Description:
Layout: H1 2-14, E1 19-24, H2 29-40, H3 63-68, E2 74-81, E3 96-99, H4 108-125, E4 131-134, H5 142-148, E5 153-154, E6 160-161, E7 169-176, H6 196-200, E8 206-208, E9 211-212, H7 218-223, H8 231-234, E10 240-242, H9 246-249, H10 263-266, E11 273-275, H11 276-281, H12 285-292, H13 301-316, H14 321-331, H15 335-349
Parallel strand pairs: 3-10
Antiparallel strand pairs: 1-2, 2-7, 3-11, 4-7, 5-6, 8-9
Helix pairs in contact: 13-15, 14-15
One iron/sulfur cluster binds next to helix 7 and helix 9.
Amino acid sequence: VKDHKNHILAYGRALGLDQLCISPIDLPYLYYNAFDNWIKNGYHANMSYLNDRVDEKECHKKDIIHSRMPKAQSMITAAVNYYRQDSETLSPNSNSGIISRYAVSRDYHKVISKKLIKLCRFIENELKGNARFYVDTGPIMEKAYGETSGLGFIGKNSMLINGDFGSWIFLGVIITSLDLEPDVHHLPFRCGSCQRCINACPTKAIVKEKTVNSNLCLSYQTIENRGTIPVELRKSLGNLIFGCDICQEVCPHNCREKPCVEKDFKNRLVDRHISLIEILAIDSDQAFTERFKGTPIMRAKRRGLQRNACIAAGNSGDKLLIHVLKEFIGKTRDHILIEHAQWALAQLNI
Ligand code: SF4
Ligand code: SF4
């Protein structure tokens, strides 16, 4: 229904969703097949919740969404720009760690969910349809919906690249029972012969075009991996302590970035550079929460961030960090943290 679509788009934009597009609920099969192969290859690493996105029996993959909303007809995909100019230089040899661009302001799950809840209520109350939203929280292939509805194209780095904002966008989706007219203007694949992201990735995690092996990806390792970071990847981490933006920073489509307007993303809660000494000195979960509450950094928990900081300290070449690491070992009983700190000491003593 055209009117419904126009109302939804207008209301969504008024809520601060920068761009919204509509697609049918069933994706072309190539997306299901690509995702299925990604899982079969084990490229999802330990993110077992992603298995949920693929049914054991191939022919039932589409049914996952229908099982959540039997009368689902349309998918609304929303993008919000989060780019903000950062003045710090990201020097690889400083004794501070680098936080990924997206993670220094209020957690996007909270910010975008708040908008999507309102849009769902609007659909339910005013347009009498069912609506259910996801922001990286369910079995939905957001980027595929974004690509099929013209929000962007999936680049070789596997990010959805938007014509206005590049890949500095957060995505959220709403499944609805309303039959909305799909957007048909697709953005063509614009990587051409470029290979920058593939060549720049420090661990060669982009194993082929549009396919990232999470086991090798530093973003996965620093955020989602709860255990030991494989020794062979530790040097590649440099001073990244939460996430990795390298395959986005090098992308030519990200050079025309526009500053975000969303106040929650404009407003930085932490710096992109954080002193490794300060991180290793955090001595309780409460202190960690006070320092990082509201940001996506909470996901790594104190243990994950300190583990990553140990590796960054080992890679820093800064001998002044030796006594900091020794003190840290003296204060913890966590065998994973101790092992990472000892690895760091071995690097600095060479
Ligand atoms: S986020 Fe970093 S490690 Fe992961 S694919 Fe991109 S460049 Fe490679
Ligand atoms: S860096 Fe080049 S190949 Fe990679 S996503 Fe951007 S345009 Fe595509």
